[in-house]
Design brief:
The protein is mostly helical. The radius of gyration is 17 Å and the shape is elongated.
């Protein structure tokens, strides 16, 4: 029975890793097509992306990374990865709240404010 449980967890982990990767690719394509930019710092979006998944989740690229790491935890069963997920979540949250969102507000002004009213804040998505 134990072997079956391990295989199920590993399979779920692999599926999560693929879903996280697919979400990252999907977000990148949306950003390229509709926001006229890429996730790269050197090619920042020219417009706010407020459609598809971005209408419901403010930072889906960040969530894709969390999903991949959660899949790694299940696949490899390493407790250090759980610590990494917790630390990474906190670090990314601090960067997003203290740098990225204020920078987006300066760049996009009223459009960013309107978008924020429609999509939930990061604090509502992640409870520390």
């Amino acid at each position: 029975m134990r072997g079956l449980e391990c295989r199920v967890l590993k399979t779920v982990g692999i599926v999560l890793m693929w879903l996280g990767a697919a979400l990252a690719i999907y977000c990148s394509v949306l950003m390229l097509l509709f926001a006229k930019g890429t996730p790269a710092v050197t090619s920042a979006p020219k417009k706010i992306l407020a459609r598809n998944i971005y209408a419901f989740i403010r930072h889906p690229m960040m969530w894709s990374l969390f999903i991949v790491v959660a899949g790694e935890i299940l696949t490899f069963g390493n407790i250090i990865l759980l610590g990494w997920l917790i630390a990474m979540s906190r670090i990314i949250w601090l960067i997003v709240v203290n740098y990225e969102e204020p920078q987006l507000e300066r760049r996009f002004g009223d459009d960013w404010t309107a978008y924020c009213k429609k999509s939930p804040p990061l604090d509502a998505q992640v409870q520390f």
